[in-house]
Amino acid sequence: MKDKPKVVFHGSQYLFDTIAPQHAHGRCETESQMGIYAAATMDEVIPFALPFRFYPDEPGGKLSRDSDGINSYLRYGTINPRGKGYVYVLPSESFELVDEWQWVSKAPVKPIEVIEISVKDYWHTISFSEEAKIIQRELYGEEMGRLGLL
């Protein structure tokens, strides 16, 4: 059993004053609980903080991505190269370990700190399928070129 860290980290595309439990949609029961998911290190939650978007960005849109815990693979969808996300530093008191790396709280949690991250600082951790590259170039090609990301 891992020792409980003093703080845990939660990544989100959205800015909140308090993090509320949400129903997760994971691959198994452990990853699909109603709760706040967090990890012991900031690096592990960066893929969840990056603002990946459905394409098209409307109710009929689609998003497909994977992560190995540090790097992200975008199969289908988009990410704004000038986008930002948020990493929340949370007190760990209400969190319980549910697998080898994920901690879950069933109660709302007030962050100790909120760290704003920029997509451009983590661009090197994102890879794209051929289809996602086409969509990305269509939406952000000129901007990606200016940022040196193409």
Structure write-up:
By secondary structure, the chain is an alpha+beta fold. It has one domain (7-143). It is built from three helices and twelve strands. It has helices at 46-49, 119-122, 130-146; strands at 7-12, 22-23, 34-38, 52-53, 64-67, 72-76, 78-79, 84-91, 95-97, 103-105, 113-118, 126-128. The longest helix has 17 residues, at 130-146. The chain is elongated.
Task: Please tag this protein with its features.
17% helix, 3-stranded antiparallel beta sheet, single chain, alpha+beta, 3 helices, 150 residues, 33% strand
Mean pLDDT: 89
Domains, number: 1
Side-by-side strand order of the widest sheet: 2-3-10-9
Briefly note the structural class of the backbone: alpha+beta
The number of helices is 3
Low-confidence stretches: none
Task: Tell me the total number of β-strands.
Answer: 12
Terminus-to-terminus distance: 44 Å
Largest sheet: 4 strands, antiparallel
Topology:
Blueprint: E1 7-12, E2 22-23, E3 34-38, H1 46-49, E4 52-53, E5 64-67, E6 72-76, E7 78-79, E8 84-91, E9 95-97, E10 103-105, E11 113-118, H2 119-122, E12 126-128, H3 130-146
Task: Compose a concise summary of this entry.
The protein is elongated and about 45 Å long.
